[in-house]
Amino acid sequence: MHLDAKVHQYDFTVVSNERVGDGIFRLVISCPELASLILPGQFMNFRVPGDASHIVRIPLSFASSDAGTGTIELVYAAVGEGTRRLSLLEAGDGSDLLGPCGHGWNVRPGGRALCVAGGVGVPPVLAAARALVQAGRTVDVVLGAQTASRLWGETDALALGAGEVIVCTDDGSYGMRGFATIAVEKLFSANEYDLVVTCGPNVMMGAVARIAEDAGVECQASLERMMTCGFGACSTCNVAMRAGGYKACCMDGPVFDAKEVAW
Ligand SMILES: Cc1cc2nc3c(=O)[nH]c(=O)nc-3n(C[C@H](O)[C@H](O)[C@H](O)COP(=O)(O)OP(=O)(O)OC[C@H]3O[C@@H](n4cnc5c(N)ncnc54)[C@H](O)[C@@H]3O)c2cc1C
Ligand code: FES
After folding, report:
1. What are phi and psi of 132, to 5 degrees?
2. What residue stretches are annotated with the FAD-binding FR-type domain (predicted)?
3. What are the residue ranges in the chain where pLDDT is below 70?
4. Ligand 2 pocket test, candidate residues 43, 58, 250, most atoms within 8 A of CB
5. 180/142 Cα distance (integer angstroms)
6. Interval 90-117: pLDDT, tens
7. Atom number, ligand 1, closest to the C-alpha of residue 222
8. Stated pTM of the model
9. 58 lines ligand 2 (CB under 6 A)
């Protein structure tokens, strides 16, 4: 199926789908053609088999892709019917997805960058961190979760060769107690950044965007909206802009210049 110049429908096969936390799953799919062209920060729109009445696809970002093995790694929270059925897929099961959707991170060489993720915002932020390290930057990572059992990504962040990795939990069950923004403020007072990338709860991204803007530092934010089509046809994913009007999260985003968003 051809949707526009870049979004196509691809079949995929599940390589593994394992529980890695409380309601958090790590899915690895085989989708060779897409694995070689999807860019960090872009997303895929999954058809999850099993319920003919559930026709809306599930938009998911990815943590890593490997053109050599043809695989893509995702991490998702089972929050509703679609993601619950996704969690039931086993190795060898197959379905289809639309991708690569949207615009990803603007990755370029530069100075020190700070990557800030909360909750299930970790996968696209890890993909950004990896690309920024590959671009020659020093990258610090802040990972936030409600509690230790819902935390994922620390091992992966450490494996990237990132500068400093700070983990925060709201309840203090692991790492620093409190919101990710406390760690961001601490790092900002110790280091000089020229880029911040963030994905997670809206309130966290808005706070991170304000810290970056006050310091005159560029901030890119990957937004989440309810999505029906995923390719610009339905207007369900509007993002209010600071200058007025709306943009489509699925086509203009999900990564936006944080200064342009009406938080
Ligand atoms: C670009 C993009 C990338 C995403 N990447 C990831 C990811 O890497 N990992 C991950 O766990 N989740 C990600 N999400 C969120 C994921 O798409 C939703 O959790 C999922 O669609 C919920 O579907 P469901 O049928 O299980 O839940 P539903 O029964 O539809 O809803 C359950 C709950 O999830 C909320 N929800 C539903 N759809 C979305 C949505 N599109 N965005 C945010 N909240 C939603 C509902 O408001 C409700 O509270 C992403 C969303 C977008 C837009
Ligand atoms: S999801 Fe339909 S326009 Fe964005």
Report:
1. -70, -40
2. 7-107
3. 1-5, 52-54
4. 250
5. 7
6. 999 999 999 999 999 999 999 999 999 9
7. 1
8. 0.94
9. no
Q: Please state at what angle helix 180-190 crosses helix 202-214, rounded to 10 degrees.
A: 20
Please indicate whether residue 254, judged by its CB atom, sits closer than 6 Å to ligand 1.
yes
Domains and CATH numbers, the chain: 8-101 (2.40.30.10), 113-260 (3.40.50.80)
Q: Which two tokens stand for residue 217?
A: 């530092």
Query: What gap in Å lies between CA 229 and CA 247, rounded to an integer?
Result: 15
**43 residue type, one letter:** F
